[in-house]
Design brief:
The complex is a heterodimer of chains A (about 300) and B (about 425).
Chain A (H helix, E strand, L loop, with lengths): L2 E12 L2 E12 L3 E5 L6 H8 L7 E6 L2 E2 L8 E4 L11 H11 L4 H14 L15 H13 L5 E5 L7 H16 L3 E5 L3 H7 L2 E6 L2 E7 H7 L4 E7 L3 H11 L1 E4 L9 E6 L6 H11 L1 E7 L4 H11 L1
Parallel strand pairs in A: 3-8, 3-9, 6-7, 7-8
Antiparallel strand pairs in A: 1-2, 1-4, 4-5, 9-10, 11-13, 11-14, 12-13
Helix pairs in contact in A: 2-3, 2-4
Chain B lengths: L2 H15 L1 H30 L2 E7 L14 E6 L4 H10 L4 E5 L5 H7 L1 E4 L5 H22 L4 H7 L7 E2 L5 E2 L1 H38 L3 H5 L4 H38 L8 H8 L1 H18 L2 H29 L7 H24 L4 H6 L6 H8 L6 H29 L9 H8 L2
Parallel strand pairs in B: 1-2, 1-3
Antiparallel strand pairs in B: 3-4, 5-6
Helix pairs in contact in B: 1-9, 2-9, 7-9, 7-12, 7-13, 7-15, 9-12, 9-16, 10-11, 12-15, 12-16, 13-15
Chain lengths: ~300, ~425
């Protein structure tokens, strides 16, 4: 796949504090890239470097094959975590102002704004001032302002904060649609379920270093622990449980079921294949449930951070 | 449309549409004219009062000296004792009683003269009375010594040395005065403008931070453009407001003076001075003033006034912008205000003390190149004749410093946003410059 953004060995120091240490990432065209990490890890610094708000001390950033240059800001749409709009300005004027700063002509900006305002059903806010809107409403405007100039690269820092579930869902769908239309998206969030749902690729930054990077599926495969969730109907639960405990490492499990069955998570040694394990279980009783436990993004996040 | 003009337009419109800005634009002239009208009205009231003063002259020297004026009426008492006169003065509506005792000679006269009144009498009235008595006594003394006062007058010769430069240009005291008035007015105007609108620029620079819009903006435009746009936009709004003020004040003044029939200069001391010399030469004075104005290098002055005013204002505006760039909220700006105002105050002091004393001395010269003081000091020096190359050099330094200040402010601004919520110290700002 073609890369839209390549960050090469970027380091940044503020005074005595090292905010980024030799971080490299590659973002494929048309993908959703999740930039994860605990608070203060250095995500925002990296995003600011990509937006040319601040310059890296060493390393380089390549956008669409060219080293980052001032005119590239028109190809990037950035929704920062610290966000706001001019409170006393009217919605329409404000959106036009930002669109023009991003290089759109006034006419073009008006047409696109009309499209977006109709799409998000906010057309009658045009003459309202931002201070008259609720937080969620202002967030919608901010989203429109971010995507209006059809940027190749969209960077969303916690895009769902401040939205109710309905609007969060609406915005999620819009983001997915933007990706379909060809945009590449970098997405920084602490909401692991949205990472799970949306991201193709993730990178985890912790204490200024990148500690994990790759396709979400690959990472999950990497973090698989050969753990299976099983349900077994046996003549005597206590006896079977004792046998299983003896042979394997087991953990309590709880899943919804209509049977009265023995429920466990079982860690299977690498030497035993899935088929062998299933066959063995069938000798012990009636097998009603067999699922591989896939690590969630949240599990991976916590595990990796704790390891480091 | 390029970014700078977009930013300027937004800043300008935001300022001009701001409600408190509109209110102040129209309210200030009304308050100003209102206060003026009140003062004029009150002083006209003051002028209308007539003071009755009783004079008991037992010595008999001054009987013919007390001539009543519209505001002071003298009443000469005769054939009453001091006690009776006092009683009379207390019961009647009399402002005061002047008592001149009977004496043998003029020397002892001075000790016995007393003014009785209910409250302390006004200083100017006492001055007038003292002058009157002194003149009379002096004349009497001269006559005693055998000299006629007319002789003395005829012996007195006024000297007013003519001033001329080596190039043959005539200069005069009056001319110097005019030059000072011009320089002083220019300096004062600049001072006012900076104080009124500097804060507005600072607040405008903080606006992006308080409304959290800063990251969006800064990822779209360069901080230098943003700051320049803010300085120009706010300045244009300031000029608009200033022009409205000037026009409104002129209109209101005309209305007020014609409706209430107040003479704008009534009651001011200059009016009285002028009245005194009215026969002598108002015509002559006006003629001289016009002549001197013609002698000033008008074109040079106007061009340089515009350049120094704009340059000086922009430089200080960029200083205010740097303060705005360094802080997160207006409450943090206090510690930075003094260093801005100090050079401005210094400039005015140097202008009014050193330049007046010696327009081309070392101190005046040095300060007319330092950009923080040159707008005031150089403007005050120019009427006294400064070579053109010096003026140009000073203007160039001024504008270059302005450019440097904006660069400096932009640098602070860019780094400052990365440090939310921390009150910066000077040391930290120095460190930021190196980022």
């Amino acid at each position: 796949m073609e890369k839209l953004l390549v960050v090469n060995n970027v380091s940044k120091t503020y005074g005595d504090y090292k905010a980024l240490n030799n971080v490299s990432i590659e973002v494929e065209k048309g993908s959703i890239f999740g930039l994860l990490g605990p608070n203060g890890a250095g995500k925002t610094t990296l995003i600011r470097i990509i937006n040319q708000i601040t310059m890296p001390d060493t390393g380089s950033v390549i956008l669409d094959g060219e080293p980052l240059q001032p005119h590239h800001i028109q190809y990037i749409g950035y929704l920062p975590e610290e966000r706001g709009l001019y409170k006393t300005m009217k919605v329409g004027e404000q959106a036009l102002y930002f669109a023009q700063l991003k290089g759109l002509s006034k006419q073009e900006a008006k047409e696109r704004l009309k499209y977006w305002f109709d799409r998000l059903e906010i057309g009658d806010w045009w003459d309202k001032k931002i201070q008259e809107l609720s937080k969620g409403m202002a967030q919608k405007i901010q989203f429109v302002v971010t995507v209006l100039h059809n940027p190749k690269l969209l960077i969303f820092d916690e895009p769902f904060s401040g939205f109710d579930p309905i609007n969060a869902n609406l915005i999620k769908d819009e983001i997915l649609k933007l990706r379909e239309d060809g945009a590449t998206i970098i997405f920084s969030t602490h909401r692991m379920e949205s990472v799970e749902e949306m991201c193709d690729h993730i990178a985890l930054i912790h204490k200024s270093n990148k500690i994990l990077d790759g396709k979400l599926v690959d990472i999950k495969r990497q973090y698989r622990s050969n753990m299976f969730e099983i349900g077994l109907i046996t003549p005597n639960h206590a006896v079977t449980a004792a046998i299983l405990k003896d042979k394997f490492e087991i953990f309590p499990a709880a899943f919804k079921s209509i049977n009265d069955e023995l429920q466990y998570k079982v860690k299977v040694p690498d030497s035993v294949s899935k088929n062998e394990f299933v066959s063995y279980l069938m000798t012990q009783g009636q097998l009603t449930h067999f699922v591989e436990v896939i690590p969630s993004a949240s599990d991976i996040f916590i595990e990796t951070i704790q390891k480091n | 449309m390029n970014h700078l003009s977009l930013i300027i337009k937004r800043e300008y419109l935001t300022k001009v549409r701001n409600k408190s800005f509109i209110v102040m634009t129209f309210l200030s002239p009304i308050i100003f004219v209102g206060i003026f009208a009140l003062v004029a009205y009150l002083s006209s009231l003051n002028n209308d009062t007539v003071r009755n003063i009783s004079v008991l002259d037992e010595s008999g020297f001054f009987t013919e000296e007390f001539n009543s004026t519209p505001h002071t009426r003298y009443q000469i008492l005769t054939n009453v004792s001091l006690e009776e006169a006092k009683k009379q003065a207390e019961t009647k509506e009399v402002y005061g009683l002047l008592y001149i005792p009977k004496t043998e000679n003029l020397e002892s006269l001075s000790k016995g003269i007393t003014f009785y009144s209910e409250d302390s009498p006004s200083l100017s009235l006492m001055g007038d009375i003292n002058d009157l008595l002194e003149n009379k006594v002096n004349t009497l003394k001269l006559r005693e010594a055998g000299i006629d006062s007319e002789t003395i007058k005829s012996l007195h010769i006024n000297i007013n040395a003519n001033q001329e430069t080596f190039k043959g240009m005539e200069t005069s005291k009056l001319g110097s005065g005019l030059k000072l008035i011009f320089g002083g007015a220019a300096g004062y105007l600049l001072f006012m403008f900076i104080i009124i609108y500097g804060n507005m620029i600072m607040r405008s620079v903080i606006e992006e931070k308080t409304s959290r819009v800063i990251e969006v903006i800064i990822s779209s435009v360069k901080p230098r453009l943003l700051l320049l746009g803010k300085i120009f936009g706010t300045t244009l709004a300031g000029i608009t407001q200033f022009l409205v003020w000037v026009v409104l004040i002129l209109v209101l003044m005309t209305v007020v003076t014609s409706v209430f029939g107040i003479d704008p200069a009534a009651g001011s001391p200059s009016q009285q001075v002028l009245e005194n010399s009215v026969d002598g030469g108002t015509q002559q004075i006006i003629h001289d003033v016009m002549l001197e104005i013609n002698n000033l290098p008008i074109a040079n002055l106007i061009v340089m006034f515009v350049l120094f005013f704009v340059g000086g204002y922009l430089l200080y505006a960029s200083l205010y912008a740097s303060v705005g760039a360094a802080v997160d909220s207006e409450t943090d700006t206090q510690q930075f205000m003094m260093p801005i105002l100090m050079p401005l105050i210094l400039a005015v002091y140097v202008g009014f003390f050193t330049v007046i004393d010696n327009p081309h001395g070392t101190v005046s010269q040095v300060f007319s190149y330092i950009p923080f003081t040159s707008p005031v000091v150089m403007l005050m020096r120019i009427p006294f004749g400064v070579p053109l190359w010096q003026q140009i050099l000073s203007v160039v330094i001024l504008f270059a410093t302005f450019g440097g200040m904006v660069w400096f402010a932009a640098k602070i601004y860019r780094v400052g946003i990365l440090m939310y919520g921390k009150k910066p110290t000077y040391k930290e700002i120095y460190k930021w410059l190196k980022y």
